[in-house]
Specification:
about 180 residues, alpha/beta, Rossmann fold, seven-stranded mixed beta sheet, two-stranded antiparallel ribbon, 11 strands
């Protein structure tokens, strides 16, 4: 199957669930993330503010902040992602593509990430080899490829129905170190 074929299959699978059902399924995934050794030992966690059809992250973000982690979320700037510090739900605003993001005055992280950083990454589909299929715009692949190059732990978050046998990959695609999927 092509990347677009997989996206269509996953969209169809997602449509079988209500937003409320996806929220309930997200709770088990969030619990796994919080128990994950890499996350527990991380100083910085880069995550994302979830869209309605993704693993729900607002409660996770609050829990990570509450445990003393520095949490950063992506902000779309042209073709790139900028990472801004998350300081709570009240500091969020609607950004590109209608995705909630930290406000303009939030601290940014530039250049090098601390070695004990973890990135929690959304995706349309993942496979057992850690390959990830995004929504097709390449934002995460560009950001992760440019910033990380093996220094940080990349963890994909998904529902079990988003796992596929094989995600087609290109040279620029970035592989996850781990997938948390229930």
């Amino acid at each position: 199957m092509t990347k677009e074929d997989i996206r269509c299959v996953i969209r169809e699978r997602k449509s079988d669930f209500s937003v409320e059902e996806l929220q309930r399924m997200s709770h088990a995934i969030i619990s796994e993330v919080l128990r994950c050794e890499e996350v527990q030992h991380a100083d910085c966690v880069a995550a994302y503010w979830s869209l309605p059809d993704e693993v729900s992250t607002p409660d996770l973000l609050d829990a990570l902040c509450g445990s003393g982690k520095k949490v950063y979320l992506p902000v779309v700037k042209g073709e790139l992602l900028q990472w801004r510090r998350y300081s709570g739900r009240n500091s969020m605003r609607k950004g590109a593509f209608g995705i909630m993001e930290p406000s303009e005055d939030a601290d940014c992280i530039w250049g090098e990430w601390p070695e004990r950083s973890v990135f929690l990454v959304p995706g349309m589909a993942f496979d057992g080899e850690g390959n990830r299929l995004g929504r097709g715009r390449g934002y995460y692949d560009r950001a992760l490829g440019d910033i990380l190059r093996g220094k940080c732990t990349l963890i994909g978050l998904c529902f079990s129905f988003q796992m596929v046998d094989k995600v087609p990959t290109d040279e620029h695609d970035v592989r996850m170190n781990k997938i948390i999927c229930i």
